[in-house]
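About this split. The held-out portion is used to measure sequence recovery: a designer receives only the structure tokens and must propose an amino acid at every position. Recovery is the fraction of positions where the proposal matches the reference. Here is one held-out target exactly as it appears in the evaluation file.
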């Protein structure tokens, strides 16, 4: 129980206006939740969690006043963007205030040398639309870019569209600076620059409230959306891996999906050949003919070819990639869930071992990513193919928690890295570099432990968990 009271409710209403405080009804329930139900484990743990109120500040001044009001009476503050996270990142474990940042949505500057500066709550589709007008594109977007916010992606996400070239949000050089607001009775601004930004990336809002972001952009390209199909998974993967590693082919997406995953994508059914495996590509329009010809020579046929509209309008083939594939599968068979893994250089052998050990229980979904930052040059070759790694979000036919553990254990046994999407605890989710420095930052920016309490288990101050 928190000390949320009628007096605090009245104070919050006075700060942001009664219309921007939701304290009852279906909206309160919805805005307290994200896509945690992807995981049967999280679903059981988080179904009954909800905020006492959702508050929508319309300016930095209002945001500060909300933080002061909550800090004074020790009420938790849980930031929320679009609410598309998969691990309950923005679900309040101990009630309190969910701080909806979507009204803080101004794009402040797009510089001539390709840096965007924006407020945290701007939706990424608007960011991409605006930067494209000036000859740029976002280096990275989650497949949820229509709903996701800038800060929500950086604090809860990882990578996605663009990762095959630019790596992930923590790849040095992508995020230029983060401006944080501390959570206490005298909120201060803390600015992180370049490599230091890592301390507040993918930390679920536990290391300060992000109030401004600077991110580097990539030169704009025109993309075509391709779907390639083949009845032979191994043949498809050999060609796709070679495609991902060819530096002269400019790409924003390389996704491979094993059958029967394509059969779950109901709106696309007439495009697919029954029983075949598919690859989804976003590639430079000027190189499409060459890429399609190369695939055909390898026995891989193009079954869908549509330009990606600029400004961005559907159809988006990315709606079937990254964590979207699991969503489509769950619509057909609710027993599906997923795991998040990264293969080693022998990824074909590792994925074969998984198929052999868990036939029918694990269905492959590979995503090619760059391991390092890219150097942008004027030449066609603006990144180095040998830095590519194969990540994956395979579908798992869920049987029990123990069986899921068995699958994860086997992955680790054969050298596959597992990032656990079935926990809301930051430290249990996977690789958390610089954890000690992240804890130190949290202690500085949130001395009373009010920011999204319970999500960083090893935080020095965690008053609600201790209660
Ligand atoms: C269908 C589907 C597909 C997805 N595809 C991808 C993908 O391709 N790549 C990927 O990385 N993820 C993906 N995700 C996960 C999710 O969409 C991303 O993490 C997304 O970018 C989160 O943005 P959001 O605005 O919805 O954040 P939210 O879910 O609202 O919040 C995410 C986290 O950020 C914190 N936060 C929000 N705003 C602030 C702030 N101002 N200061 C501090 N902390 C803050 C929240 O407390 C929370 O912990 C997918 C999820 C779904 C359901």
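Reference sequence for scoring:
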């Amino acid at each position: 129980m928190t000390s949320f009271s009628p007096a605090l409710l009245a104070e919050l209403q006075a700060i942001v206006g009664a219309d921007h405080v939701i304290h009852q009804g279906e909206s309160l329930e919805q805005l307290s939740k994200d896509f945690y139900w992807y995981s049967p484990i999280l679903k059981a743990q988080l179904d009954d969690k909800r905020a006492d109120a959702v508050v929508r500040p319309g300016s930095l001044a209002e945001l500060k006043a909300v933080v002061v009001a909550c800090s004074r009476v020790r009420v938790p503050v849980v930031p929320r963007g679009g609410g598309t996270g998969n691990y309950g990142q923005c679900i309040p474990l101990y009630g309190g205030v969910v701080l909806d940042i979507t009204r803080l949505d101004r794009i402040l500057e797009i510089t001539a040398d390709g840096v965007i500066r924006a407020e945290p709550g701007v939706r990424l589709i608007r960011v991409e639309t605006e930067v494209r007008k000036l000859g740029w594109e976002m280096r990275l977007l989650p497949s949820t870019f229509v709903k996701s916010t800038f800060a929500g992606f950086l604090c809860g996400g990882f990578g996605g569209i663009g990762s095959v070239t630019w790596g992930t949000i923590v790849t040095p050089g992508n995020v230029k600076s983060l401006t944080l607001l501390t959570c206490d009775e005298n909120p201060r601004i803390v600015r992180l620059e370049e490599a230091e930004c890592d301390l507040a990336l993918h930390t679920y809002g536990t290391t300060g409230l992000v109030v401004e972001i600077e991110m580097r952009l990539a030169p704009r390209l025109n993309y075509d959306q391709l779907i390639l199909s083949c009845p032979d998974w191994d043949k498809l993967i050999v060609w796709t891996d070679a495609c991902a590693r060819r530096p002269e082919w400019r790409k924003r997406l390389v996704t491979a999906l094993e059958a029967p995953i394509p059969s779950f994508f109901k709106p696309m059914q007439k495009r697919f050949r029954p029983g075949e495996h598919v690859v989804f590509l976003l590639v430079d329009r000027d190189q499409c003919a060459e890429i399609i010809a190369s695939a055909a020579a390898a026995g891989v046929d193009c079954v869908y070819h549509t330009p990606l509209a600029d400004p961005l309008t559907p159809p988006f083939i990315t709606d079937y990639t990254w964590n979207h594939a699991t969503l489509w599968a769950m619509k057909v068979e609710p027993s599906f869930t997923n795991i998040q893994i990264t293969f080693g250089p022998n990824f074909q052998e590792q994925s074969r071992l998984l198929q052999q050990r868990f036939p029918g229980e694990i269905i492959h979904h590979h995503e090619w990513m760059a391991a390092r930052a890219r150097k942008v040059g004027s030449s066609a070759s603006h990144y180095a193919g040998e830095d590519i790694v194969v990540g994956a979000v395979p579908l798992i036919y869920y049987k029990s928690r123990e069986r899921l553990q068995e699958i994860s254990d086997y992955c680790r046994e054969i050298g596959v890295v597992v990032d656990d999407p079935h926990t809301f605890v930051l430290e249990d989710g996977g690789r958390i570099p610089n954890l000690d420095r992240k804890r130190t930052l949290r202690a500085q920016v949130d001395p009373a432990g009010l920011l999204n309490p319970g999500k960083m288990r090893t935080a020095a101050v965690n008053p609600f968990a201790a209660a």
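Annotator remark: The pocket of flavin-adenine dinucleotide is lined by residues 34-35, 78-86, 89-90, 101, 120, 142-144, 148-149, 151-153, 155-160, 204-205, 209-210, 322-324, 327, 452 (CB under 6 Å).
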